[in-house]
């Protein structure tokens, strides 16, 4: 089953010394080596976001993030896992789980409505 893993950062989080978080390059190498991580990328900061809406046939643009939250999407990965338990195990190993937030969303199967 495929999962979208949203990697979110909390800009107010400041680790105190060595918090024990793993290195992101080690995480990428492990998940790529196991064939779990199909792709992933960092994204520009929320301040570079553009929100697009259409209301009454008019395109409305807003600079910056749409949602007012302290957590911002820093990147994403697409995972291929046997089930949610495996996806959680993979996400828990990601360094951002130690000081940010990891959100997992299963892909909607093409054969379901």
TrEMBL record:
Gene3D superfamilies tied to this protein: Dimeric alpha+beta barrel
SUPFAM superfamilies (UniProt xref): Dimeric alpha+beta barrel
Domain YCII-related: from-to ranges: 1-109
Domain of life: Bacteria
InterPro entries: Dimeric_a/b-barrel, YCII
Coiled coil ranges: none
Family membership noted in the UniProt record: Belongs to the YciI family.
Protein name from the UniProt record: Transcription initiation protein
Upper taxonomic lineage: Bacteria, Bacillati, Actinomycetota, Actinomycetes, Micromonosporales
């Amino acid at each position: 089953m495929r999962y979208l893993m949203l990697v979110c950062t909390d800009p107010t989080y400041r680790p105190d010394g060595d918090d024990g978080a793993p290195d992101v390059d080690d995480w990428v190498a492990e998940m790529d080596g196991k064939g779990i991580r199909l792709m992933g990328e960092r994204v520009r900061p929320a301040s570079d976001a553009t929100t697009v809406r259409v209301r009454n046939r008019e395109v409305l643009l807003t600079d910056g993030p749409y949602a007012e939250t302290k957590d911002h999407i820093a990147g994403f990965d697409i995972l291929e896992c046997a089930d949610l338990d495996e996806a959680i195990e993979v996400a828990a190993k990601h360094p951002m789980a130690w000081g940010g937030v990891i959100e997992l969303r299963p892909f909607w199967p093409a054969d379901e409505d």
